[in-house]
């Protein structure tokens, strides 16, 4: 398990992008490790952004004192509550500062997430190595609380480090392996609706009304219905003409799972805004903006897109 940051000279990430991590056991250790990292970036004249939960931001503001305002702080629980929105955050920062060195501190796997959110945070960490393979000078360090670590969530699995043989891992293959593994099985209690082109309007109405019956607000239901329509339309267009919608509620969350026989080859689908003239991808991007969490897996058995909306989040857009 990776306990400390990968040494500067042993970073095994792609040229121009350095992606490492550290584990902290308490607030003091977090500050001792994160504070100097940010200060070093400021001294070097880099663009410095920290995307963290509010409590971590407060700790670092106190530690940095007068220079705290030189760091851009972003609430990760808002900007990255859905981990699929984090890559666009870093991509926008790179676009806004061409030619500048970027230094980021980001905690996507923060304590308090659900099991599905931790899984997507892990997948996101692997995708970072693909998304920014050809980026400019970008250094990203990811804190991990020791309380969230497990055999399934180990930062060494997703952060570029040199292997024992001296060769860096193929991070595209690491991400592809995760992307190809199916999501946890749809529960037996789930209700199902088979649909094709003729049923697109009906399946959207059915899914939305079911979600509303579980306690979602009108705004939440409208957001979820639009996301559902986009994904079901993709199933008809690219997934063999038909799909299956499964719906259930779990741990205060409404879950809509859309499965079809199609295959997605773009690992970053829904995480980078497709060009206006691009074929596909915009519906998944939209779903990521509207839902609390979107999970996508695609392999030999087809594609799953799983939409999550928290019942207790008080309404409003995702």
CATH class of the largest domain: Alpha Beta
Output the structural class.
alpha/beta
Please state the average pLDDT score. 90
Number of discrete domains = 2
The quaternary structure here is single chain
> How are strands sequenced across the largest beta sheet?
1-5-4-2-3
| Beta fraction | 15-25%
- Let me know the number of strands: 10
The radius of gyration is 20 Å
* CATH topology (level 3) name of the largest domain: Rossmann fold
Q: Count of helices?
A: 9
State the share of residues found in helices, binned by percent: 25-40%
Coarse shape = globular
The succession of helices and strands, N to C, reads EHEHEHHEHEHEHHEEHEE
Q: What would you say the CATH architecture of the largest domain is?
A: 3-Layer(aba) Sandwich
CATH superfamily of the largest domain: P-loop containing nucleotide triphosphate hydrolases
Please outline the major beta sheet.
5 strands, parallel
Q: Note poorly predicted spans.
A: 5-15, 162-166, 314-318
N- to C-terminal distance: 34 Å
């Amino acid at each position: 398990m990776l306990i400390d940051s990968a040494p500067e000279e042993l970073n095994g990430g792609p040229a121009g992008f350095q992606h490492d991590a550290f584990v902290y056991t308490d607030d003091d250790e977090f500050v001792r490790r994160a504070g100097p990292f940010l200060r070093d970036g400021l001294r070097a004249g880099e663009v410095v952004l920290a995307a963290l939960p509010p409590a971590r931001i407060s700790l670092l503001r106190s530690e940095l004192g007068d220079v705290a305002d030189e760091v851009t702080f972003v609430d990760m629980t808002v900007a990255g509550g859905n981990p699929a929105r984090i890559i666009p955050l870093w991509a926008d920062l790179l676009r806004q500062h061409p030619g500048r060195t970027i230094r980021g501190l980001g905690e996507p796997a923060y304590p308090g997430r659900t099991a599905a959110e931790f899984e997507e945070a892990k997948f996101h960490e692997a995708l970072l190595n693909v998304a920014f393979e050809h980026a400019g000078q970008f250094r990203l360090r990811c804190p991990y609380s020791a309380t969230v670590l497990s055999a399934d969530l180990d930062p060494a699995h997703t952060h570029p480090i040199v292997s024992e043989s001296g060769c860096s891992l193929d991070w595209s293959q690491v991400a592809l392996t995760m992307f190809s593994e199916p999501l946890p099985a749809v529960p037996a209690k789930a209700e199902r609706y088979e649909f094709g082109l003729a049923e697109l309007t009906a399946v959207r109405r059915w899914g939305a009304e079911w979600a509303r019956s579980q306690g979602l607000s009108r705004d939440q239901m409208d957001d979820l219905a639009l996301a559902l329509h986009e994904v079901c339309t993709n199933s008809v267009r690219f997934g063999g003409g038909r799909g299956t919608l499964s719906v259930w509620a779990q741990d205060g969350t409404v879950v809509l799972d859309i499965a079809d026989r199609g295959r997605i080859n773009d690992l970053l689908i829904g995480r980078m805004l497709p060009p206006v003239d691009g074929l596909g991808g915009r519906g998944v991007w939209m779903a990521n903006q509207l839902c609390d969490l979107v999970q996508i897996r695609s392999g030999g058995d087809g594609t799953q897109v799983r939409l999550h909306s928290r019942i207790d989040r008080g309404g409003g857009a995702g």
